[in-house]
Amino acid sequence: MSDRVRPTDPAMFREISGATVFGASSAEQMERWTSALAALIDDLFAAQHVRAATTVVAEHALSFTRADVALLCTAHGADGMVIRDAAGHGAHTLAGSLFDRASSVAGRVLDTGTTAYVGMPRLKSPIDPVTSFGPMVITPLDGAQTRATLGVARVAGDDPLERADLPEVAAYAAIAGIALRVDHARRDREGQRIHDEHDRLAATLLDSLIRDLFAISIRLDGAIARIDAPDARAAVQAAAERLDKVVIGVRDTIFTSAPPVVIGEPF
User: Fold this and answer.
1) Could you give the C-alpha distances from 127 to 122, 132, 133, in angstroms and in order?
2) Dmax of the chain from CA atoms?
3) Residue-wise pLDDT tens digits, 1-56
4) Where a domain ends, among 147, 164, 190?
5) Which CATH number covers residue 49?
6) Domain contains 243
7) Using an 8 Å Cβ cutoff, are 140 and 109 in contact?
8) Which domain holds residue 239?
9) Cα(65)–Cα(58) distance, integer angstroms
10) In what order do the strands lie in the sheet with 146-155?
């Protein structure tokens, strides 16, 4: 893992692990799942503005399920599916591939919410590189703003995935889905906090601006009486009146929901 990856956020880890039902059959499996969850959270933090969260999920599926390829598929239009993210063997040729929803196993998994184990002959994939893999486990993945399927497989000829691997793949998808939802909520909260802070700073700056403009207007009014030349006095008077309108316009913009007051053409 990169040195730039921040350590696991304890609050986020507790939130996700508390929402996850760990059906581990042994202490060793529990330790591996917990470690995988911590690594996934670390990478989700590190991936901000660098890689999509769904890409991170696909990448971590490889190590968790010991697969050679992970495909994250979503609906595409009314009748299609698309490989939205891919990781592992041949990922660069698979991402973005389109296929039919109704006739595909991934489409049925998306529609039914059930996990499937399917061999390549049954899969009948129209995507040529997919046919180079052994049996694939495809499971639903529901995260924030992400309803997808996660498919994992090993290269044909390697030790293939078996039906006994279904629960483990489904367990990873459950962990990843919760991680995506919590990460999305965390980003929303952070975005709201930044938005509120911007509002506070803007209000402070605008309040300071009004005070400065008002002080300048008072000084102009005081200077008008000391100007002897009629033309100069008229010009300063016009500037003072315009400044008063600017102050009114700024106040109306800040304190009402009405459109700002039109203050005329610039000098």
Assistant:
1) 14, 10, 11
2) 100
3) 333 334 445 554 455 444 444 444 556 666 666 777 777 777 776 655 556 788 88
4) 190
5) 3.30.450.40
6) yes
7) yes
8) 196-255
9) 11
10) 98-100, 80-88, 69-76, 146-155, 133-143, 116-118
